Amino acid sequence: LWHFNYSAPTKQWVQLTPSSGEVPAARVGHSGCVYSNKMVVFGGLDSVGQVRKQASDVDSVADLVWFLCV
Question: In which residue ranges of the chain is pLDDT below 50?
């Protein structure tokens, strides 16, 4: 999970470290949205080309906790 820091003098991307939960595998071709302080990532292909269509990974943005929503 990355955050663009507009307030830094260099305006840079910063990687956020989750406080708990299993971080989902990297993927491409996914979709995502933010709603009510949660970020939902759905679908896409993982690094070996398997389709991730049956589960959504959710991040609680306020406390950086990942959980799986099946």
Answer: none
Residue 57 CB neighbours (<10 A): 22
Q: Check residue 55 and give its pLDDT.
A: 64
Quote the CA–CA distance of 27 and 52 in Å, as a whole number.
Answer: 9
Indicate the DSSP class of residue 51.
B
DSSP output for 10-43: T-EEEEPPPSBSPPPPP-BS-EEEEETTEEEEE-
26 vs 1, 9, 23, CA distance in Å? 10, 29, 9
Element (H, E) at 47: none
pTM for this model (two decimals):
0.67
